[in-house]
Amino acid sequence: MNGRCLCGHVSFTLRETPEGVVICRCADCRRWSGNAWASVSVRLEALEVRGAPVWFRSSAYARRGFCGGCGASLFWQPVTEDTAGGERIAVSAGALDLPTGVSVLREEGEAADFQQAGPLPAEPRQLTGRCLCGGVTGRLAGPAGAVEACHCIQCRRMTGHHSASFGPVTDLVLSGHTLRCHATQTGHWKFCGTCGSSIGFSRGEETWLDAGFIDPPTGGRLTAHIFTAFKGDYYRIMDGLPQAAER
């Protein structure tokens, strides 16, 4: 089983078949991936990594690995006092080449407001946001409003599952010397160079902001799924919201 980041600078091979996929919606994974992070767990010795991921100590008990070139969120590893990592490592499910042949084992964490369907909030409010390490911050007028889940190949490799973003936003102000951009044929991906948090995607003067970057409550509601023809094979879309095979 093979996989890679968005730009291809970091690739990997799994030498064993994982049991299944865990989808995590905890606050840290939302900040890091911009939505939810999906992963498979393998023994450390069963993972062969090519390239050099950047590691960020995200808590007292774990570190996260990402590509320093594109910002793709790739690995989560437990950390103990006497070793750099535990015996197992979580690997991004979205970065895996299709078909994966696995399915969702369980989902963890409480869903944020933007990960649920429902009436759109009408009250305007100032929105603030930050990456996982706090090196990049942002502000804009809210509420987030309609949030779309994008299942395209780029979003899957970048975020580890699928993206959840809103926009285009016109009054976004981003600050922080760790802000990085990765250029593709379709636009620019914004991420933090220290922690690897996904921030958003820009095309020309337009920016779509990852809802997980925003401090809750975002005032956003999930309204549609796009590029579902390219979705991962390990999950199903069952919320009844409109779906588009492409845009």
UniProtKB/TrEMBL annotation:
InterPro entries: CENP-V/GFA, Mss4-like_sf. Keywords: Lyase, Metal-binding, Zinc. GO terms for molecular function: carbon-sulfur lyase activity; metal ion binding. Signal peptide: none annotated. It comes from the Bacteria. Belongs to the Gfa family. This is Aldehyde-activating protein. It comes from Haematobacter massiliensis.
